[in-house]
Amino acid sequence: MINIQNVHKSFGDLEVLKGINLEVKKGEVLSIIGGSGSGKSTLLYCINAIEKINAGKITVDDIDVHDKATNQDKLRQKLGMVFQQWNSFPHLTVLENVALAPRIVKKMSKDEAIEIGEKELTHVGLGDKFDVYPTKMSGGQQQRLAIARALAMRPDYMLFDEITSALDPELVGEVLDTLRVLREDGMTMICVTHEIAFAREVSDNIAFFHEGIIEEMGSPDQVISNPQKETTQKFLSKVLS
């Protein structure tokens, strides 16, 4: 599981995370919602050791992420992460993009990496795009390519950071459909998202972040359908309207 205990994170004098406590068990989906600057994305970066924490503890399968003795590069192989921007390699085909990391990081043979790449691209609905270059694809297709690249590393967990925020509205659905497939496959996921209806549909739990704290957390019915805190109610009334 991913376990987060009293995590604090500051950028200079700005405290972004003010004592976060969370637990995500294998097979669960946690969605994190909240306004801009509430600390949602920062928490993902701390889980993946992209950002260091100032206090607290984060463990992934009982491995202390921020311990000096931890091999963070190896740990990141457990944690697939997909960002707002897809950052594919434009000079490589779609299949070459997906097969690259398994060959370099996991030292797979070319044939094995290609086999995994084909499987994961088919998994996300890009089975007909193997030889296409990313620049010839829509934003939604490029984001699904980014998901396939992360899946090709065989992670135990997937972290998604507002992956639909840069997409035109008509392309959002195809990316969310891919996450639905992962949900059905039993993938453990933490999704920072502003897609409230999607979060309600796929999540086991939803955490509402407000000014660096978890203001409210519970099942989708609890947090979205029956929020108890005034800040949660105001946020949802604004985004749902």
SSE blueprint and pairings:
Elements lengths: L1 E10 L2 E11 L4 E6 L5 H8 L7 E6 L2 E2 L7 H4 L3 E4 L11 H11 L5 H14 L15 H13 L5 E5 L7 H17 L2 E5 L3 H7 L2 E6 L2 E6 L1 H6 L4 H11 L1
Parallel strand pairs: 3-8, 3-9, 6-7, 7-8
Antiparallel strand pairs: 1-2, 1-4, 4-5, 9-10
Helix pairs in contact: 3-4, 3-5, 4-5, 5-6
Report on the architecture of this protein.
This protein has 241 residues and is an alpha/beta fold. It has a domain at 2-84 and 156-240: 3-Layer(aba) Sandwich (Rossmann fold), CATH 3.40.50. It contains 9 helices and 10 strands. The chain has helices at residues 40-47, 72-75, 94-104, 110-123, 139-151, 169-185, 196-202, 220-225, 230-240, and strands at 2-11, 14-24, 29-34, 55-60, 63-64, 79-82, 157-161, 188-192, 205-210, 213-218. The strands form 2 sheets. A 6-stranded mixed β-sheet has the order 6-7-8-3-9-10, sandwiched between helices. Strands 2-1-4-5 form a 4-stranded antiparallel β-sheet, covered by helices on one side. Helix 3 (94-104) packs parallel to helix 5 (139-151) and helix 5 (139-151) runs parallel beside helix 6. The chain starts with a strand and ends with a helix.
